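Project standup — Tuesday

K.O.: blocked on the structure for the chain from last sprint. Re-posting the sequence here as requested.
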Amino acid sequence: MDQRTRFIVDHLRDALAITELCDHYGVSRKTGYKWIERFLRQGPAGLEERSRRPRRSPNETAEEIVTAILDARRRHPSWGGKKLLALLHQRHPRWHLPGRSTACDILSRHGMVPTRRRRRRLGHPGKPTSQILAPNDCLERRLQGAVPDR
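H.V.: unblocked you, prediction finished:
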């Protein structure tokens, strides 16, 4: 039996006061009353762990703005977030538009930013491409036969 179920069972027995019961289980009185209220309303299902994820994000960009950014990008496929926001500001001056980085994130999330080809890493420019075995030794002199290979 988990902690919440044991808490409710002990509460229903009326063996201890709520304060003593909460102290015994190491929870605040507010949490104890919350568990009791959930059990009375929903039964044992009310004691299950709930998601802590917020139901909505207050700073989320409005759907109409996201749609407008994506539509503008479809019309101007080479433009970035900064130009698209300037265009939308001209068309809709009363809208509260997001910042440039947010507009770029919106484009990335919807797959509208092409991935760049990665440059091949060649290593440090001062690193020799062959093994140097002696002072003033270099690959060209070895290839010419001036220095014997060791």
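K.O.: great, moving the ticket to review. The mean pLDDT is 87. The longest helix spans residues 29-42.
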